[in-house]
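Lecture notes, structural biology module. Today: joint structure prediction for complexes of three components.
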Amino acid sequence: MAKKIILLVVVLAMVAAACSSTDSGATAQKSLLDDIVARGKLLCGVNNAVPGFGFVDSAGEFSGFDIDFCRAVAAGVLGDPNAVEFKPLTAQQRFTALQSGEIDVLIRNTTWTASRDGSEGATFLTTTFYDGQGMMVRDDSSYQTLEDMANTSICVLSGTTTELNLAARFNSIPYTPLTFDDNDQLRNAFVAGQCDGWTSDKSQLAGVRSNWPDGEGGPAALRILDETFSKEPLGPVVRDGDSKWADAVNWIVIATIQGEEFGLTQGNVASYSGDNVEIKRFLGQPTPSSDGGTTVFDPGLGLPADYAVKVIGAVGNYGEIFDRNVGPDTALGISRGLNDLWTHGGLMYPPPYR
Amino acid sequence: MASRTTSTRRRGPALLWVQENLFSTWLNTLFTLIFGGLFLFAGVALVRFFLHAQFQIIVTNLTLFMVGRFPRELLWRVWVSNSLIVAAIGLAAGASRGSAKAGLEEAGLPVGGSRPREVVQRFWPILLLILVLLSLSRTWVPTGLTIVMGVTGLGAFACGVVLPASRRNWSFFVAVLMLVSAFAVLVVLGGKGWDSWGGLHLTVVVSALGILFAFPLGVLFAVGRRSSLPAIRFLSVWYIEFVRGVPLITLLLMGMFALRFLLPRGLNPGSVTRVLIAITLFSGAYVAENVRGGLQAVPKGQMEAALALGMGTWTTQRRIVLPQALRAVIPALVGQFISLFKDTSLLSIVGILELLSVSKIVNAQPSFFGQGLASVTLPFVGLIYWVGSYTMSRESRRIEGRLGVGER
Amino acid sequence: MWWRDVGTLRIVAQVVAVAAAFAFLGYLYRNLVTNLRAQGIGTGFEFLARPAGVNVAGSGFEASQPVRSVILLGVKNTLALVIVGVPVLTVVGVVVGIARLSSNWLVRKAASVYVETLRNIPPLLVILIAFNAVLLPLPTIDNALHPLGVLVVSNRELGVPWLVPREGSGLYLLVLTVALVLAAGIWVWRTRRFDSTGAPHHRVLWSSAFLVGVGIGAYFLIGTPFQVSLPEVRDRIVVGGMAARASYVAVLVALAMYTASHVAEITRGSILAVPKGQTEAANALALTRFQRLRFVVLPQAFRIAIPPMINQFLNFTKNTSLGIAVGYAEVTLVTFQAIGNGYPAPQMILILMGVYLVFSLTISALVNILNRRLQFVTR
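The predicted structure, tokenised, for the full assembly:
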């Protein structure tokens, strides 16, 4: 009997010892930028099924507007646009993946909102695409304004700001939302007449419309209502609390826009030999300094001085990225509109690099 | 009941069959008309589907469907790996056929059938699927490589058959070694870890590894559930009933979202690893129930006899109980594998690039976007699942018959 | 020597096992708490009171209502699937199972094709195909069909007639419940009478006559407490009756058909498992085919089929989680969306698992009770 008691005590002591060991200490506070340089690879959270922005081609390669910006960041930080590992994420996973450090940056046509900045532990950077939410209806229907669509069924993708914006805009107007997990189901429902309207970002709607098969009436069979009923500024997102990394990504994105303003393209950026001081500074070329010599400008971002050359050389300037993926000649066929340079009436206004 | 006529008019066998099977009573006649109409309607719809459907989306993306985003320049690894697997299966099948032949010859019985025709009868869905896939490929390379694979498999089978009896166990060991190296060839020396795998390849790998890892877990908990120690029994029951009571999707969600919280900081397993952990936990409980059923099928008298002979618990389990139990367990295990194969479709919901999600992403490519081609890709994916599942369940029933499960 | 004493070893083994299990779980829990705190996410369940921020289609649910309400709504939607789906799939499955044994070759083949096709495709795919190939091709709400004048069939909503309670409905339901209990009593009384005297019991006749009589009588005495409401299409929605959304119907039809294929196999297996001697004896006694099925084969087959059938009911319940693919707002989709809105994943998934566990354990408990009552005593 005594032996059994002793045994029990010993075992309980083991259990107590196991339970009382404390967890290891906190991690040191250094920036993700250094980690990425040490690692040699960028982890980019992206979409794999959004036409124009993030999709996978038949060779298994990622392609799209957001993908190009991932490559731009890799080129700027690591010098190699292919040093990226793309991690496709669902809408539900994106912020948790960012918070947990599974990805370094999220470039996944994510809308910048206050609550996401505040409570998702995320920091939104320069907007790369100003989009808005619109409504697409069949051309032969009588709806001209959103008020006309009372008591209709509207198809919408679930888990997105689109859903909430729809609810907010249709505040007192009764309607029936039909939510879907992916665009295929939604499209089929729309074609079958299950819903009267399809709401999504106007860039997506434009793409769908321009690809509408002729067997179903071609693009002329659909109409996008004029009203844009929400603002959808889309841009890269990084984790809160790492300002060095945030600044680095931010200025890489800005570099593409600045490059377009300066007229630098993928073809000519590496061979620039002009005299414009602003451009030379931007490209990390030596510029005259106050004491008569030359100096290479280093804004203290932690990036190599010629990162702009690498970025624009890898993916081109903003205009080239836009035209290649979502421009008027692509399947989406979107015109620059708000996404044009400020000099052409758009909202792309790069802060000065000095 | 069919009323046999005593008329002396002779009817051809075909007509007699039709009368008995289709028109024997008024009710049957009615059913024949209704279902005949249904079959006709379905047949016409199917033909129309094949005539009008645009298969270009599958043709362009066939590699994506098969291996996902596996780097195209490393595809030779996949072919080598598949050849090794086919060879392993061929060798094992050959060895078992060899031992069956030897047994028959020893007993003086005639050795059975013409193999090719029987093989085609057994495996016609898979052969058909391979033909369909090869016809959808753009170049002749996959066809050539498939032929090479087939030849390798047949060669291995032939080797297995002619092996002398002393080498037969050795051949199973070699087969296992080949399977391991099939896995290794994909990963080591510049290969890609399973986070880069995708498509049908990933589906099969995840199902196979899921069952493989779940098996020891399942046996552990099955034996634990039958233990006479109440605490261990309680723990086992708790685990089994918990996991069997929740849908797989909740475990997958847990694996994708919550697992990283349960692990110490800095330990960041990849997506496929997390999902495999969830699947292993899930399958483990079901395998445990299957094994428990197998253990229960062993007559109690066996264990009493072993006890009477003075065997201890472990010896009894190892030499008497488990071999008999596994006879009943294997068909159930195969059934579990088939279930898992189908359940991998759920991985598309948590963002893993397996077969069903490829269907989703190819519909977002610029050349196929917005054309409603899900009506082509979904049936294609369904066909692949159907072929795999149907073939495996038929084989499982055959194995059941051969093992004599359920008979004394 | 205590370490060779079997009794001691048994206790030691158990204690070690339990200690190891608890240590492991404790380790996981500590990691969980540490990691959650590091991310600034609470470890408790207070988030349940915060606004959900999700919109649930077609239910008037506001995004500002608390998370626990949206979870309850999800549970209600899941129940709606289970309550309707289980009877439907049982009926279809048993019919198809019997059809597979029919003497008519076409019927047999049709049933075989049905079973072998559906059994071998993943249920998720069945749902997707049912939605795309069955639901969507139905006519649009403007051209909705009105079969028999009482249903509305469109690809947006389906309408069936429903009863609308008026005053006195509560009293009526109470009366019905009492009548049901009394009818059970009548059943028992007639059975006992049969056991003791051998006179035919006609218990089904007696109980149902009583129930129907009381039902009709009370209905008129209380003054028509229910009213039949017919669905009709107005302003592109279905008003009146009970409107079922297309995603609900798609998931219901798909999962019911899928699970029915398994039930058909179980039915066929259980009928074949009835010893052949029973069929031969029934034939020798000159029972008709129907009598043979009804009195000899099916009751025995039923007993064999119950455990695997209940397993299929459980599978159906768990598979309702796949409604997420077509946007049906059952409890898994709701949880998924809440996680996407930033609510802590571990707690939400725990709640989700808890919900399904309650379903499963309830059904299992009912099964065990049923099983015990139906067991043959075997050697």
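Point to remember: Chain C touches chain B through 58 residues (CB under 8 Å).
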